[in-house]
Amino acid sequence: MSKISQQNSTPGVNGISVIHTQAHASGLQQVPQLVPAGPGGGGKAVAPSKQSKKSSPMDRNSDEYRQRRERNNMAVKKSRLKSKQKAQDTLQRVNQLKEENERLEAKIKLLTKELSVLKDLFLEHAHNLADNVQSISTENTTADGDNAGQ
Asked: Is residue 46 a part of any domain in this protein?
């Protein structure tokens, strides 16, 4: 049987306990968890990386704001150009495939005609061959009948 015991650390910044120690039969294991402090759960659990950030509105006249806006505008422009290029590439590929499809359809028509001509030639030849075989067998049977009478 596995015996489990837990030990909670004391609440840290903003009432958050960050590390729980769990004792298993296999040994101790530290598991990072975010747990609100206090029985009432009055505050939200906040990740440590988010605790130091404060969302204060940025001054629109500051250099940092202007730099961020400029970087964002360049990123948007780059994204739109990339999207436009992708659309043009797709359109070009569609046109290439249409041309190839037309070429292949023409080839199918040509090969179908060729097949039809060859099929007709084959059937005509087979019919002539059958007529020749039949006439030869008729000649042989009449010749055999003539030879039998001699």
From this structure: no
